[in-house]
Amino acid sequence: QVQLMESGGGLVQPGGSLRLSCAASERISSINTMAWYRQAPGKQRELVAIIISGGSTNYADSVKGRFTISSDNAKNTVYLQMNSLKPEDTAVYYCNTKYFVFLQLKETWGQGTQVTVSS
């Protein structure tokens, strides 16, 4: 079972930047998607950004133009660059991947990393 490990969270002032990283424990040969989700206290987990097989990306409307998702396949790592952070971006951020193993779709979540935007 592939494991994901997030890092890079922390406390940042409004308007600041953070870069989250998500490293997979092994190379995943048949990735369907890699994505970042977030969950704020009392709210449902929501999709923030996603890379779909082939390289296309998509973002939640609330982060478009501020967040960028990217991947480094050589390092088995996906990143989330977050700029112009707002207090409403405060949440636990989770990495997620869906991938195929012998034509079966598998899904793995990371443990989450806390992002707090506050002055």
Q: How do the helices and strands line up, and which of them pair or pack?
A:
Layout (H helix, E strand, L loop, with lengths): L3 E4 L2 E3 L5 E7 L6 E9 L6 E7 L4 E3 L7 E6 L4 E6 L8 E11 L2 E6 L3 E5 L2
Parallel strand pairs: 2-11
Antiparallel strand pairs: 1-3, 3-8, 4-5, 4-9, 5-6, 7-8, 9-10, 9-11
Percent of residues in helices comes to under 10%
Termini distance?
40 Å
Low-confidence stretches: none
**Over the alpha carbons, how many angstroms does the gyration radius reach?**
14 Å
- The topology string of helices and strands comes to EEEEEEEEEEE
Sheet bearing the most strands, described? 7 strands, mixed
How many β strands by DSSP?
11
Strand content: over 45%
Categorize the overall geometry.
elongated
**What value does the average pLDDT take?**
94
Class derived from helix and strand content: mainly beta
Describe the structure.
The chain has 119 residues and is mainly beta. Helix content is 0%, strand content 56%. It contains no helices and 11 strands. It has strands at residues 4-7, 10-12, 18-24, 31-39, 46-52, 57-59, 67-72, 77-82, 91-101, 104-109, 113-117. A hairpin with a 4-residue loop joins β7 and β8. The mean pLDDT is 94.
Task: Name a few traits of the molecule.
119 residues, mainly beta, seven-stranded mixed beta sheet, 0% helix
